[in-house]
Write a structure and sequence with these properties.
Elements: H1 9-15, E1 18-21, E2 24-28, H2 35-41, H3 46-53, E3 66-71, E4 73-77, E5 80-84, E6 92-98, E7 103-107, E8 110-113, E9 115-117, E10 120-126, E11 135-142, E12 145-152, E13 160-163, H4 167-173, H5 178-187, E14 207-210, E15 215-218, E16 222-225, E17 229-232, E18 238-240, E19 245-253, E20 257-265, E21 268-278, E22 285-286, E23 291-295, E24 306-312, E25 315-317
Parallel strand pairs: 13-15
Antiparallel strand pairs: 1-2, 2-3, 4-5, 5-6, 6-10, 7-8, 7-11, 9-10, 11-12, 14-17, 15-16, 17-24, 18-23, 19-20, 19-22, 20-21, 21-23, 21-24, 24-25
């Protein structure tokens, strides 16, 4: 759904300032931000940020400056090591296990397979946008041995907004069939296959109007959060696949309107909502950049836009970091 209120420059820069690098998580300083504010957002201290970035004077940071906020984590294991990117609310993060031939990982109540790679076993894990920012247990099952650990989940720093809805849209949100629609969307994404892309392509030429994770008040009904990334563009703008994949859903849905879902492997799927027209069929393999349909205003929508959604193992995660690359250490 498209947001109704404009987002300030500072908020946009802050929300979109988190990136992955080979060293860890990097934050780009936004106008008006202080090192204290950045430290509080990521659950760290001014002293630690100064140490990580070699800052002699913590009071002198510049707009656009890239600051390492969390270094890549490493844990020694009996036969190797665990390397991971620090988890953040609402984002996917990758981990790699070296020294073992097979295994699995358990995190936030779910169990995920580790798959072989060039430098060890690896996987991508989701962190829900509402997961509490604290230390959470992680278990590694490696060649018959279970190893208990814990990872600290950092806050996502999400904003808030209120959507003013017409009576008809409020009525749609109370439709009892919406649960079945959500189950269909989640169930359409298979867990098999391997990822075959390194980063997302832009789905269209347009501006981002509402980021992932924003806490939303939906009219007079309830408060939730935005599960995708909204792009505004003129009606009929071609909407393209962000990466190679297989079409696993292509149909008209009540809330999501004309909708397409692509499966990319390893439980990762992308959804394209509110289209005016679909141009692909279920079972079709598409390339990154291929046109899936045209931008529209169908379903629960307050104006022409594309809602791009990413689900990893069924959990919505922020699409934005994927445009910079897979979050793999």
């Amino acid at each position: 759904m498209r947001r109704l209120w404009p987002i300030g420059v500072v908020l946009l820069a802050s929300l979109f300032g988190l990136a992955q690098s080979p060293r860890g998580l990097v934050h780009t300083v936004a106008p008006g931000e202080t090192l204290f504010q950045i430290a509080r957002r990521y659950g760290t201290t001014v002293e630690e940020l100064a140490r990580l970035n070699g800052l002699r004077d913590p009071n002198r940071i510049q707009v656009g400056q890239a600051l390492l906020v969390r270094s890549r984590g490493e844990v020694a294991l009996p036969k190797g090591r665990l390397v991971y990117f620090p988890p953040v609310q609402g984002r996917a993060f990758g981990l790699r296990v070296e020294g073992y031939a097979q295994g699995w990982v358990g995190f936030l109540g779910e169990r995920y397979p580790l798959v072989p790679g060039k430098t060890g076993l690896w996987t991508l894990l989701p962190v829900g946008a509402l997961v509490e920012a604290k230390a959470h247990p992680l278990r590694l099952g490696l060649e018959g041995e279970e190893i208990p650990l814990a990872l600290q989940v950092a806050p996502g720093g999400y904003g808030q907004e209120t959507l003013v809805l017409s009576p008809s849209l409020e009525g749609l949100l109370q439709d009892p069939s919406l649960r079945a629609e959500r189950e269909k969307v989640v169930g359409a994404c298979p867990k098999e296959g391997l990822l075959t892309f390194s980063r997302f392509l832009r789905p269209l030429e347009g501006r981002i109007t509402s980021p992932f994770g924003t806490r939303r008040r939906y009219g007079t009904l309830f408060t939730s959060y935005h599960e995708g990334l909204d792009f505004a563009a003129p009606l009929g703008t071609p909407v393209r696949a962000v990466a190679e994949g297989v079409v696993v859903l292509s149909e008209r849905l009540k809330v999501r309107g004309e909708a397409v879902i692509l499966s990319h492997g390893m439980g990762l799927c992308t959804g394209y909502w509110h289209l005016s027209e679909r141009r692909v069929r279920v079972g079709e393999r598409v390339k990154g950049g291929q046109v899936l349909g045209l931008l529209g205003n169908t379903g629960l929508s307050t104006g022409p836009h594309l809602h791009l959604e990413v689900r990893l193992w069924g959990v919505p995660v922020d699409p934005l970091p994927f445009f910079q690359g897979l979050p793999l250490p």
